[in-house]
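Lab manual, section 2.4: Encoding a predicted structure.

Procedure: take the sequence of the chain (178 residues), apply the prediction step described in section 2.3, and record the output as structure tokens. A sample record is shown.
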Amino acid sequence: MSLNHTPPITFYLIGFSDLHYARIPLFLCFLIIYMLTLLGNLLIIFVSWLDVHLQKPMYYFLMNLSILEVFYTTTVTPKLLQILLGYSHNISLAACFTQMYFFLSCGGTESVLLALMAYDRYLAICRPLNYSKLMHSRVCQSLTMTTWCIGFVASLLPTVSISTLPFCSALAIDHFFL
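Recorded output:
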């Protein structure tokens, strides 16, 4: 007995679909939060880049965390805003897996980056005399690039593994992303 495992073309995202009366206030609320998040993170990136006094490892890592937060929020929020406006609740299979890949990549990168920031603070507190020798700019850049690579490479395996699974006939996802 062979089953037809034709992959679905699109998924239907249910998130907030039953809140017809609250769509516009929710849209405005999420839009304001999204814009403030972008503005705050872009301000941190801009100030850290321009101010010479902030050219230290802690601020370099904070700038990378802000860059990551811009990517992280931009992975999910535009689709949420589109759903709240009622334009399209559908997401293609390719877009779904692309969104999942970037969401997992940003989450993994954030975890490794926070561990790196903790290690930086450990060195600054426990080894203050060796700190400048251990954490100079080239080391910070190498560690940060390694962090980004770990996050983006490690999320390939779950994304590819999930994309090869068969899907059932229920194509509705009770969420607004993934």
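Check your result against the sample. Helices lie at 23-50, 57-84, 93-126, 131-134, 137-154, 156-163.
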